[in-house]
Amino acid sequence: MTNIKTMMRECTQHGPFEATLVCAAHDYGNGFATLDVWSGCPSCRAEQRAREVAAVEAERVRLRDIARKATCVPPRFQLAQLGSSKLHVVLREFADTLADHIGAGTGLALIGPTGTGKTYALAAMLLELADRHAEHIAAEAEREALQRDVRNGRAASHGLRYANAEYIGMELRNTFTKGSPETELQVLRDYTTPRLLVLDEVGAASDEHTRKAIATILCVRYENAVPTILAGNLARSELEQYVGARAADRLAESTKFIVATGPSRRRATAVSTANNSARGAA
Q: Which of 40, 107, 117 is nearest to 83 (CA)?
């Protein structure tokens, strides 16, 4: 049976504690010797462990926040979470097999009326992916942050990118301005290079320049075998007509169409809020 030697010692912070002999002194007879080593204050050890755990958690949150910001998901949807609805299940399965889609360049097209939860679901999927790959995405974001900020002040996509298709035309028109820091090609690269692009509100902009830009983005991404998820309020035939025959043909091969149905959730929320306010006033 091992005899454990203990003694009372004093911690300057926590007062007296029982210390345990960790290593006994030993004289080796050749000029080398060890000293008795006693365990330290358990309260100090517990506080140190707590600081280490807190530091790890703080770093995890920091990387997560950087990764989420890099997706360019709008602030309104920063708290979006995937649930159990049919659309959410489809998107979670897509996220789980993202590596396969990147290799094959296969994507999705979410079509249906406004307010059926397409944007929310897509934001939730991107944020979940950002959380899963936060360390890698954050490293890329920090590596390129300085150059990106100097070039145009926008957050880089770093693999996962949400974009409102309606704004593409405006960004391209801004490059025509004298002294613009960007060219059309640089703007388009923001949409052709991400490993996963979520292009929302496709069809909202009717000008020819935007339509051609979207068609170009889709064709380049098809050629590079990187997935694109489209979302909009057009029917499939209308969407295909919108992007043109060349891009539509590529979508037919590489894209699974998902129809989102149901009443507008925004209007339902507005009615519920109004009813609650009326009850409160009564």
A: 117
